[in-house]
Write a structure and sequence with these properties.
- The protein is of the alpha+beta class.
- It has two domains: 140 residues, 60s Ribosomal Protein L30, Chain: A, CATH 3.30.1330; 164 residues, PurM-like C-terminal domain (Phosphoribosyl-aminoimidazole Synthetase, Chain A, domain 2, Alpha-Beta Complex), CATH 3.90.650.
- The chain is built from nine helices and 13 strands.
- The protein has a seven-stranded mixed beta sheet.
- Helix 3 packs parallel to helix 4.
- The structure holds magnesium ion.
- The site of magnesium ion has 5 residues, from helix 3 and strand 8.
Length: 328
């Protein structure tokens, strides 16, 4: 079935579409009441975030826009130290979109939400004129345990940086799909809860975490350097990049440091906790290739400094300009 403007009317077709596509798949008590707002349990410190997803193509090796829309918001909640609990989703659907495509997206979102252990409790659909495109906005709510404070302001001299796995996979997978290049590269799109909770469960003193998305590791670490006033030192030989992505970057002249991932995070931890942190991470799903990649040093020199394989030191700027559009 094709989406028509009638599906966006707010009338019977809209209700039927929502019931058939989304409500049946996202089913949970808060959503099932179908009131104007979901009422949910919770009286703790809240984390809130929202993100919009416009990726093209909608389906790509290793994921799809639905999985991405859940993971992107879940991972941002996790990075603030929150336990993700609730998600809302808004669909902007262009006239002519195929309901089979929407079904695949909804099924993927439901499966990813189950994996990430949160409920999709509210949503909206709008149909607009266009050529069959689909865009999704998600907002997430999580609870932050008392006493847990994370962020650039908590960074300390001597903190060690861990990266949860290889750089560049999502970016390279999208670019390959867009260019029609056949290779083995798959998006790393994944919810990062297992790795994050493994760190906390192991008692690791985590100072700050960021997921490495658009703009890449270079952009995230420059933000840490700017906000903390400390220098971030990276060891080039320690940066995990898969062979396939490295070869792909070599051909196209791309730098894995500015490429986006959708299932990787960087954590700054107390130096005494590094070995515990590394083994906790490596035993968690999606984090088996976690590595120590650098450290935070004193305020004598700010910015991000890469210690190269050849023994030199190079300043790493954040990503400037456009990068690859519609990657997420
Ligand atoms: Mg983020």
């Amino acid at each position: 079935m094709k989406i028509t403007m009638a599906h966006g009317s707010g009338g019977r077709e809209t209700s039927a579409l929502i019931e058939a596509l989304f409500a049946s798949r996202f089913d949970n008590p808060a959503l099932a009441r179908m009131e104007d707002a979901a009422v949910v349990e919770g009286a703790q410190r809240l984390a809130l975030t929202t993100d919009s997803f416009v990726v093209t193509p909608l389906f790509f090796p290793g994921g799809d826009i639905g999985r991405l829309a859940v993971c992107g918001t879940v991972n941002d909640l996790l990075m603030s130290g929150a336990v993700p609990r609730y998600l809302t989703c808004g669909f902007l659907i262009e006239e002519g979109a195929d309901t089979q495509v929407l079904e695949r997206i909804a099924a993927s979102m439901a499966q990813t939400a189950r994996e990430a252990r949160l409920s999709i409790v509210a949503g909206d659909t709008k149909v607009v004129e266009g050529k069959g495109g689909v865009y999704i906005n998600t907002a997430g709510v999580g609870f932050v345990p008392q006493g847990r404070e994370l962020g650039a302001a908590c960074l300390q001299k001597g903190d060690v940086l861990l990266l949860s796995g290889p750089l560049g996979d999502h970016h390279a997978a999208i670019l390959s799909a867009r260019m029609g290049i056949e290779n083995a590269i798959r998006s790393d799109c994944a919810p990062l809860g297992e790795g994050v909770f493994a760190l906390f469960d192991a008692g690791v003193r985590v100072r700050a975490m960021r997921d490495v998305t658009r703009g890449g590791l270079a952009t995230v670490l420059n933000e840490w350097a700017d906000r903390s006033g400390y220098a971030v030192h990276l060891k080039e030989e320690a940066l995990p990049v898969s062979q396939e992505v490295r070869a792909f970057c070599g051909i196209l002249g791309l730098d894995p440091l500015t490429m986006g991932n959708e299932g990787k995070f960087v954590a700054a931890v107390a130096p005494q906790d590094v070995s515990r942190a590394l083994s906790a991470l490596r035993s968690a799903r999606y984090c088996a290739e976690a590595a120590v990649i650098g450290e935070i040093s004193g305020a004598d020199e700010a910015g991000v400094l890469l210690h190269t394989r050849l023994g030199g030191i190079r300043r790493v700027p954040p990503l400037y300009g456009e990068g690859l559009p519609r990657i997420c």
